[in-house]
Amino acid sequence: MEEVGLGPNGGLIYCFEFLMENLDWLTEALDSLTEEYLIIIDMPGQIELYTHIPILPTLVKFLSQSGALDIRLAAVYLLEATFVVDRAKFFAGTLSAMSAMLMLEVPHINVLSKMDLIKDQVKKKDLKRFLTPDVALLDDDPLERSRRITEGPEGEDDESVPPDEKSQVMKGASFRRLNRAVAGLIESFSMINYLKLDVTDEDSVGGILSHIDDCIQYHEAQDPKEPDDEQEYDEAD
């Protein structure tokens, strides 16, 4: 990427643009796979790919359109469960998830991953509130209460500083208004629900896979298997 003067994010976009110009290579790699295969495309986390750059929506349409490939697609958006500790960060991540849903326009599953990391930090009854996010989560945010106590009067808005100044937006009343606006937008769309994923729990992993199967209608695509009439079964004595 040094040759073209691009950083990590710019280089990633450049690579995707190169892929879009050479889709024959991708078609050749996937064309031989039958419907019995479950293809997992592990995507990078750079959010610009899912928000305002139309590369991935174009790729999704290419993979799913009727023709050579005609792949049934589903998007699985992973948000680390550690985000629930900081509710402002959680709503920012949820906004990104909603943006990806709107951009990709395919069956979509949102997952709170790494649940095993917060077992001792968040009670189960409190965690349920994050599965369907709403503005009320900001009303009793323990981290925000801690911020107010720590910052004191200095944490409030400074009227001598322009309201769009970064230092002003990211603290005090301005920061709280921003978080509430983001949370209100998410709640008004009412599109986001999360599933929990704990990789140390086999049932948790199986539940996620089951939801993915339903989204892509995996079992419906399988040909029914006829019983083997010639197979002999041992009868119990």
From TrEMBL:
Keyword RNA-binding: no
Span list, region Disordered: 142-170
GO molecular function: GTP binding; GTPase activity
One record GO biological process: mitotic sister chromatid cohesion
A Pfam family this chain is assigned to: ATP_bind_1
Keyword Nucleotide-binding among record annotations: yes
The entry's keywords: GTP-binding, Hydrolase, Nucleotide-binding
Comp. bias intervals (Acidic residues): 153-162
Subunit structure of this chain's protein: Binds to RNA polymerase II (RNAPII).
Function: Small GTPase required for proper nuclear import of RNA polymerase II and III (RNAPII and RNAPIII). May act at an RNAP assembly step prior to nuclear import.
Family: Belongs to the GPN-loop GTPase family.
Name used for this protein in its record: GPN-loop GTPase 3
Originating organism: Hypocrea virens (strain Gv29-8 / FGSC 10586) (Gliocladium virens)
